[in-house]
């Protein structure tokens, strides 16, 4: 009978390097307390890296760059998936993802339908803010970012250049998803997005 350590490392080795794992990835092997101890042990001996509370990875090893850990966005999405929660990028992070700013924020904020919390990832912070169902119900990868970016910019502050970038991005959104998401936006944002239908 293989030990929990062996079974966990075996499963991790079967998944590609860089894949994020949480305690819940191994609940069929043992209980949460035992799994946490095993993951901590494997981290101490260098088999794994702990990237955030409860999130572990066998990092990619690059000849030139050395150890490459998953990005903050990947970690945030894995955490939302683990918690079976919806999460929508907001604020300056939504602006960055759309190409409306070139500055990646140090602290990224997601609206979520799960509980509010902050997670430290190295020098960066992921903040999950509990929001209304309406704020996390958008289904289009691009249109949900556009709604949050426009909210951040604010009514009457949107420049023609920003709208040009937004229209270019929305041209790649699936029509059904765009139609669905426009209905969730405040009226002033709807008016700006409708020409893209």
Give a structural overview.
With 197 residues, the protein is an alpha+beta fold. It has two domains: 4-68, Orthogonal Bundle (Arc Repressor Mutant, subunit A), CATH 1.10.10; 72-196, no CATH class. The chain contains eight helices and nine strands. It has a four-stranded mixed beta sheet. A hairpin with a 2-residue loop joins strand 8 (117-121) and strand 9 (124-130). Helix 1 (4-14) packs across helix 2 (32-44) and helix 4 (91-98) packs across helix 5 (143-153). The termini are far apart. The mean pLDDT is 92.
Task: Walk me through the topology.
Blueprint: H1 4-14, E1 20-22, H2 32-44, E2 49-52, E3 55-57, E4 60-62, E5 66-68, H3 72-82, E6 87-89, H4 91-98, E7 107-112, E8 117-121, E9 124-130, H5 143-153, H6 160-170, H7 175-182, H8 187-193
Parallel strand pairs: 7-9
Antiparallel strand pairs: 1-3, 2-3, 4-5, 6-7, 8-9
Helix pairs in contact: 1-2, 4-5
Quaternary state of this entry equals single chain
Name the structural class. Answer: alpha+beta
Strand content: 15-25%
What percent of the residues sit in helical stretches (DSSP H or I)?
Answer: 40-55%
Largest sheet: 4 strands, mixed
Total domains: 2
Low-confidence stretches: none
Mean pLDDT: 92
Shape: elongated
* SSE order: HEHEEEEHEHEEEHHHH
Widest sheet, order of strands: 6-7-9-8
The tally of helices reads 8
Integer-rounded radius of gyration: 20 Å
What is the straight-line distance between the termini?
59 Å
* Number of DSSP-assigned strands: 9
Brief descriptors of the model:
single chain, Arc Repressor Mutant, subunit A, alpha+beta, 197 residues, 3-stranded antiparallel sheet, 9 strands, 8 helices, 41% helix
């Amino acid at each position: 009978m293989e030990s929990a350590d062996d079974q966990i490392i075996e499963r991790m080795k079967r998944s590609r390097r860089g894949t994020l794992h949480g305690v819940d990835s191994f609940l069929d092997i043992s209980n949460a307390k035992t799994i946490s101890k095993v993951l901590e042990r494997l981290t101490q001996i260098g088999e794994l890296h702990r990237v955030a509370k409860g999130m572990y990875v066998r990092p990619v090893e690059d000849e030139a760059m050395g150890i490459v850990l998953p990005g903050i966005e990947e970690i945030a999405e894995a955490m939302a998936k683990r918690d079976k929660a919806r999460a929508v990028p907001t604020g300056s992070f939504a602006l960055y993802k759309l190409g409306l700013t070139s500055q990646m924020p140090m602290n990224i904020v997601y609206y979520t339908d799960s509980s509010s919390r902050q997670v430290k990832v190295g020098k960066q912070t992921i903040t999950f803010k509990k929001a209304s169902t309406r704020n996390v119900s958008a289904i289009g990868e691009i249109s949900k970012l556009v709604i949050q970016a426009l909210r951040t910019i604010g009514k009457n502050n949107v420049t023609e250049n920003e709208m040009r970038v937004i229209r270019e991005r929305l041209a790649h959104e699936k029509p059904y998803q765009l139609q669905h998401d426009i209905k969730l936006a405040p009226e002033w944002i709807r008016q700006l997005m409708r020409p893209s239908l």
